[in-house]
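Key result, reporting period 2: structure in, sequence out.
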């Protein structure tokens, strides 16, 4: 169903383009060609073009050094759970920003790459300040719309669960005991919700 376009490595061997990867009982799918807002079932539409997403990520990194997972969570929080770019989009974009000398990897604990903005990146942001303001406003507007829908806390919590599972399984070293524990936690939560 999903063909893989090998446009360069993403995190943990993922490739940009469209594809899927199996981690134990979980399947994660990605599509760099376009991101859809969460909960949208009426066709896919882009929230940001590639150039716009680069500016958004750069602006968030300018606020404070971040790694890919932080950026995904921050965007999700700012939109009230309405939108979170996939790892298959974020990590290749970070690689491109680093190649453009707009961000640089910083020393960090663990395997996560922490990025900070460079002088060239700051100059690029300043050059596009008006567009950055509009893009960040778009994130805030998505959050406002989701708040008004009244379902944002549930969607945010579901998004947090999804991201936590992807993060834990992303390094590929989860043993069967860990997989079983994750399944038990999710099943237990589902049973509790059913009994409400």
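The corresponding designed sequence is given below.
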């Amino acid at each position: 169903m999903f063909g893989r376009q090998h446009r360069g490595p993403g995190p943990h061997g993922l490739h940009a383009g469209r594809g899927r990867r199996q981690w134990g009982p979980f399947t994660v799918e990605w599509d760099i060609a376009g991101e859809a807002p969460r909960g949208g079932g009426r066709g896919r539409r882009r929230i940001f073009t590639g150039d716009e997403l680069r500016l958004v990520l750069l602006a968030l990194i300018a606020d404070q050094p971040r790694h890919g997972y932080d950026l995904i969570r921050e965007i999700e929080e700012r939109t009230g759970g309405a939108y979170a770019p996939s790892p298959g989009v974020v990590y290749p974009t970070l690689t491109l920003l680093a190649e453009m000398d707009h961000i640089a990897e910083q020393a960090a604990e663990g395997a996560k790459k922490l990025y900070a903005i460079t002088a060239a990146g700051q100059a690029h942001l300043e050059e596009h300040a008006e567009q950055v303001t509009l893009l960040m406003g778009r994130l805030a507007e998505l959050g406002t719309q989701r708040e008004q829908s009244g379902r944002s806390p549930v969607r945010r919590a579901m998004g947090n669960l999804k991201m936590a599972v992807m993060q834990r399984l992303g390094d590929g070293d989860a043993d069967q005991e860990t997989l079983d524990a994750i399944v038990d936690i999710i099943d237990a939560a589902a049973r509790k919700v059913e009994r409400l």
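The first strand starts at residue 18 and ends at 23. Strands lie at 18-23, 26-31, 103-106, 114-117. This case is discussed further under Risks and Mitigation.
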